[in-house]
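Memo to structure team: turn this sequence into structure tokens by end of day. - J.P.
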Amino acid sequence: MVDPTLSSDSKPPPPALSQDIFLSPYTKAYIRLYIPLNPPKDKKIPLIIYLHGGDFVLFSASTVIFHNFCNDVASQFPAVVASVEYRLAPENRLPAAYDDALNAIFWAKNQALGSGGRDPWMEYADFSRVFLLGSGAGGNVVYHAALRALDFDIRPLKIRGLLLNHAYFGGMKSTQSEIRLRDDPYVALYVNHVLWSLALPKNLNRDHEFCNPISGGTYMGRVFRLPKVYIKGDFGDLLVDRSVQLAQFLRSRRVSVYYRFNQGEFQGIELLNKTAAQELYDEMKWFVNEVCVVSEEIGSDRYHASQ
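Reply from structure team:
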């Protein structure tokens, strides 16, 4: 765990400044807010609402790997980043994490409206260019929070896109990648099953929509209303087939989907490998800046744009 960086006085100076803002007096949920060290003075920058990974059971917005990730996103895009400290299972089973993410969206709406005053750092944010970004379980939270937000008037916020990095999904029937990599040293298949038993509401199985988003459920009729979606996966991750299935499902619902699935890499590689991290930052920045051209294949045979 690391504290927020409120000052640029340290040497070397940090890539971004950060502060913690509590969301509710009734829960431990809070926002760790980031701005670039030298934010642009002549234009607004995107607002990225970030949900960290950890299989719904582990880690925090203050965990050093996710803190550093948000520092990099804020400085490189550049962007205002609001990293959400959401409640964890098993003490707080789903949908608690979704509720906290939705409350973070409402907080951003209130900031846009200036309700009760606006944090000075949010003056840099372009509330018409909001993106939801999630890693691992955070990718799952992003997907569900975006669908839930469709039930509310969040204007003047405009959620332009979702970015799912190694999103954490599952199901009762094992996929080919889960069979092939069932003894994965990072998180083996049986460990995933245990983690889902802790995260899901009691008496629900892994084909519930919280875990398996293509199995049916209450959200199916609104999926077509989602904004464009970026999906990143790696074929060295035992859960990669879940992301492939989600991309195919979204395309079938006429959602604009941009995806990359790399050979040989694994879940969380961007947290351990600087080259992989920079590739991810560059690609996400490209997506956020809307450089991509719908319906045109771009770059390599593993990266496609489709609608």
